[in-house]
Amino acid sequence: MPAESISVSKLDEDRMREIYEFTAKTLTTSNPVPFGALIVHTKTGERLMRAVNTTRKDNDPSSHGETHTVRLACKKLKKPNLSGYTMYSTCEPCPMCMANALWAGLDRVVYGATIADANRWVPQIHIDAKEVARRSDLHCIVDGPVMRDLCVTLFTHPNMQKAFKNWSMLKKRSASK
């Protein structure tokens, strides 16, 4: 069962804005992505790791922003457990990412845009992060959406919209081969 949600704080908004700004920097590159995550110490707010989705860059369908950040954070700490840490994500974690957060032992996940928001532009698995946490024997607080409107702008940015169109065309070409 997930732990009870705590109220969203000014620190939560500051951290969400931070990961939004970090992720937004990709919008001016040749590999824009709307998905980024930041992991911080739950009690002190000290930053541990941040990263963005690298599925296309790495040709790895599991390298979503959240899982990529968890991998890097665990490597940095030299342990597979992130208890004592909170993750901020520009978008609600998909079921794979939320399961990864649970297995990593994160205390809390705070997200911006929702899965439904993301689904307007890219296919999603329609299971809420809170539902994944609720069905688990592992504990993790899930809070969101936080600064949803701001995080949705990562999806609506003109360069991201062009990338979505390119991804769609590439997928169609791949399927016809």
Task: Please sum up the structure shown.
With 177 residues, the chain is an alpha/beta fold.
List its traits.
alpha/beta; five-stranded mixed sheet; single chain
Describe, in plain words, how this protein is organized in 3D:
- This protein has helices at 10-24, 55-58, 65-77, 95-104, 115-119, 129-134, 148-156, 158-176; strands at residues 36-41, 47-52, 85-91, 108-113, 141-143.
- By secondary structure, it is an alpha/beta fold.
- A five-stranded mixed β-sheet has the order 2-1-3-4-5, with helices on both faces.
- Strand 3 (85-91), helix 4 and strand 4 form a beta-alpha-beta unit.
- The radius of gyration is 16 Å and the shape is globular.
- The mean pLDDT is 93.
Euclidean distance between termini CA atoms: 45 Å
How many strands appear in the DSSP assignment?
A: 5
How would you write the strand order of the largest sheet?
A: 2-1-3-4-5
The residue-averaged pLDDT reads 93
Low-pLDDT parts are none
| N-to-C series of helices and strands | HEEHHEHEHHEHH
Given the C-alpha coordinates, what overall shape results? globular
Determine the fraction of residues in helical runs and give it as a percent range: 40-55%
- How is the main sheet built? 5 strands, mixed
Q: What fraction of residues sit in β-strands?
A: 15-25%
User: Rg to the nearest angstrom?
Assistant: 16 Å
Which secondary-structure class do the elements indicate? alpha/beta
Number of helices: 8
